[in-house]
Amino acid sequence: MNPSTSAGYQERQELELDVTERWARREDLALLTDFYQLTMLSGYYRSGRAEVPACFEYFFRSLPPDAGFGVFAGLEQLLDLIENLHFNERDLEYLTSLGTFDDAFLRLLREFKPTATVYAAPEGSIVFPQEPIVRVEAPLAEAQLLETALLNSLNYPTLVATKAARLRQAAGEDYVMEFGVRRAQGPDGGLTGTRATFIGGADATSNVLAGKIYGIPVRGTHAHSWVMSFEDELAAFRAYAELFPENTLLLVDTYDTLTSGLPNAVRVFQEMRARGHTGRVAIRLDSGDIAKLSKAAHKMLTEAGFDNPLIVASNELDVDLIADLKRQGAKVNSWGVGTHLITASDAPALGGIYKLTAVKEPGGNWEPKLKTSSNPAKSTDPGPRRVVRHWDAEGRPLGDTLHLVGEGEQAPGSSHPDATSAVVTYADRMDPTFLRRLEGVATSRNLLELVMVGGARTHPSPPLVEVKERATREVASLPEEYRRLRNPHLYTVGLSPDLARVKNRLIRKLSGLNGLVQ
Amino acid sequence: MNPSTSAGYQERQELELDVTERWARREDLALLTDFYQLTMLSGYYRSGRAEVPACFEYFFRSLPPDAGFGVFAGLEQLLDLIENLHFNERDLEYLTSLGTFDDAFLRLLREFKPTATVYAAPEGSIVFPQEPIVRVEAPLAEAQLLETALLNSLNYPTLVATKAARLRQAAGEDYVMEFGVRRAQGPDGGLTGTRATFIGGADATSNVLAGKIYGIPVRGTHAHSWVMSFEDELAAFRAYAELFPENTLLLVDTYDTLTSGLPNAVRVFQEMRARGHTGRVAIRLDSGDIAKLSKAAHKMLTEAGFDNPLIVASNELDVDLIADLKRQGAKVNSWGVGTHLITASDAPALGGIYKLTAVKEPGGNWEPKLKTSSNPAKSTDPGPRRVVRHWDAEGRPLGDTLHLVGEGEQAPGSSHPDATSAVVTYADRMDPTFLRRLEGVATSRNLLELVMVGGARTHPSPPLVEVKERATREVASLPEEYRRLRNPHLYTVGLSPDLARVKNRLIRKLSGLNGLVQ
Q1: Which residue from B97, B185, B339 is facing A5, i.e. has the nearest CB?
Q2: How many C-beta atoms surround the C-beta of residue B51 within 10 A?
Q3: What is each CA distance from A48 to A52, A101, A454, B238, B243, in whole angstroms?
Q4: Helix (H) and strand (E) counts for chain A?
């Protein structure tokens, strides 16, 4: 981390933002949407339903494979996108060219201004399946319009922050660098994605653009091409050491690590020592048997009198591989992880969804809504819902419970002594110990906070380092059984009896409706 | 396709481009790079080697699983990026804040202008492992600087265009729509990615932004939320049919497809018919057993007198699933494919690399370079290389051969009667029939074309529809054994004897060097 430099840079704002910085603030992205959102939008306007207050909630049904928790990321980009949401003349010209929409609708789009109220878990929170992480309350048309952009803003960052947190579990206290921009899914994969890896557990990145835009520490030294561009490896290492005597990290596998790269590196480090340099020596291994080569490197370097060498490993690293290399006693203390981190390659998409959970009809009360399905796992809960998280006296999370908004609501942070009587768990995720565990509740708090009113943030977003600190703190608070790398415990998310009652009533009512149409 | 509308929109340029359009043109992306490119760059300047002419080549070592060919995409974005490459004041301010670089280097960056000469396969070409697809000739420092941005620009689009082409093999003549923006890896995943799916095989997209920026046809109707926002499904369908009588595609699985969605849809279509509508009826299935439900839907609709209904399927579709549904006789004629297409979920990164293959020392001739490795598959070929593709009299590709530039070079398009004597194949990919097949060569041509000189395009890029047509035509020209969905033939890429000789000589020389340092 180099927060001073980053903060210093972040504060200077005299120069006008450039295109990439404005893109990162999500300007001019109103058309980042599925076409059906616009046809539905025009339908809501033409049928006079556009202004009906609606509640939509963002949640995912399952975590990535072998993850026992999620780390929520992307909220900042979502709020930027909503605040900057307007249809510019280029957008309207394009929509006109499609010939699908009438002039009245296009005039409405021209005048569109976001008005949404948004509740969200703080960015960096640990989150779990089935619980609302973001709740949007807005006129039906507006809430609908936000769907695609919201999902695009949250799914990928949350996926990658979660992957980075699992990687952090494997790497322990070692330094982790994200090296993925060359394999990221587009330039933004290496920008949004890098930001999410930093939140979830990476210490630094190779991606200079992410350094510039988000103040993330950047790292890196040289590639094989540096070595290949010289007559031989020794000349390349000597030139590098002369140019960067304070940061002479040498890549030792261009030709052969044991017979060429390491002996040449040792010779150059000895030459530097003879010239009076006393800094820590550093090498990088980018191919071959990392366990064996790192031990050999450590031996050669320490035998030559270079204590505690920095040994960086890269090359297709992933969670299991790092865990296994550490188990083998690999002498690596810094990991450069690219492809598998930035693309979350074992499951490269999070299936987060955004579902209508209530509309406010003229009477003025929320009318809960749900979607049923022949696949019961795809039935949704009615809403609006809130999430209460419960902790024991040591600050360990015990589980979350879902409640209808307004039902039994207490002041944030209040204790919740009746937690055990207020819960039914999802039948398909039933944990018989949950109710017993809830007897140990010391604190209960709402997970979702008010972050936006009238389409504008209610308060400035926290600095990125605070988001990262939250994620680190919350992951560390989880009992080990949720953090292990294989077969983690399922964290319990229970339904309140009131919510369960409303859900069952609606399912019965919808079954009745099916009969009506026959 | 709706090329007229798109072209009409694309031609209008009176209004200034907005932020997203300028991002799509890759403006202000000089820092889309790995930090080590900048440290190496400063090293090349300080060691006086920055201006040494260098040749780098882009290639990949293997195709995604079960792919028998690749479809090259992303060239357009790469050329945009190079043409727009400069360090703006914001970039320089950030780099200054890092404290790593001296003023002299920062002044050089401020004055940097791209000068590269670039040869590339035309976008939309079929491409194969081990062969250079892009060759960059530029001063060493500049060519090095381009590495990260080039890989980021080409790897993901080529991966997704290749995936789309495999999907097209599975879908046959059916309509394919890309629905992935909500699961894409960032907003750009749903932009660069959508463009690549269109090149590789998709007919349309749901992504409005990709429609605006690239003129790709956009499609979509309504979601479950439309149905849920009404009192019941029938009211929702009736409202939709009234609002969009020309395009009444009804999503029938919000509650229950067979007992609710389909009966309600049939009733609404009957009401429309009674009002005089005669258009083709259309439904979408988004859950459940697509084979069974599509057959049931087809039966109910045709028995009600609606011939040839449009039946769209979506929901976690992928290549194998579509192939299997078609094998089961599913009555689907339009496929909406999201997550698995836009993220290429079975292998979400293409391992394309960009390697130094030659430098021009003061003497004036290219000096070939290669990287060796204890893993022989990671040794590279020396260069500069060109690729010759060979076709039989029916226009079917027979294989490609790699040659040193200048070695036996003939006029483009000339026949290549000595092909069989000019080839050795990669030992690890030896196809004993290759030399025999080459006896049938009717035409041989260079794959790489000159596309950029002095950092500027040599000619305007072709329209996107032409790129798509090239991909369609070239994939169709491949014999079936390279296009099948499992265990496709390996397309042969052979080395010319001269190239093989130079490679072997360099490997021997490098082994000697290893000895020297002991």
Answers
A1: B97
A2: 13
A3: 9, 16, 21, 14, 12
A4: 19, 20
Nearest to B28 among A18, A43, A375 (CB): A18
Compute the mean pLDDT over every residue in chain A, rounded to the nearest whole number: 90
A373 interfaces chain B, CB cutoff of 8 Å: yes
Nearest CA in chain B to A252: B373
Name the nearest CA neighbour of B284 among B308, B309, B303: B309
pLDDT band for A371, please (50, 70, 90 cuts).
confident
- With residues binned 3-state (H G I as helix, E B as strand, rest as coil), the percentages for chain B, rounded to 5, are 40, 15, 40
User: Which of 158-177 (B) contact A at CB < 8 A?
Assistant: none
Judge: B29–A20 Cβ closer than 8 Å, yes or no: yes
Residue A395 region by backbone torsions, left for phi larger than 0, else alpha for psi between -120 and 50, else beta: left
Rounded CA-CA distance A170/A347 in Å is: 18
CB contact under 8 Å between B255 and A510, yes or no, is yes
AA identity, residue A38: L
User: Taking CB atoms and an 8 Å limit, are B182 and A155 in contact across chains?
Assistant: yes
Selected residues 406-465 of chain A with any CB under 8 Å from a CB in chain B:
none
- Option in B20, B344, B372 nearest A28 (CB): B20
Q: What is the tens place of the pLDDT at every residue in B371-418?
A: 776 666 667 888 899 999 999 999 999 999 899 998 766 544 443 434
Exposed e or buried b for every residue in A38-61, given b needs 16+ CB within 10 A? bbbbbbbbbbebbebbbbbbbbbe
Contacts of B18 in chain A (CB under 8 A): 27-28, 88, 90-91
Strand partners, B58: B134, B354
The ipTM (two decimal places) reads 0.92
Query: pLDDT confidence of A431, banded at 50, 70, 90?
Result: low
Residues from chain A that touch B88, judged by Cβ atoms under 8 A, are: 18
Residue position matching structure tokens 């381009």: B146
Spacing of C-alpha B324 from chain mean position = 25
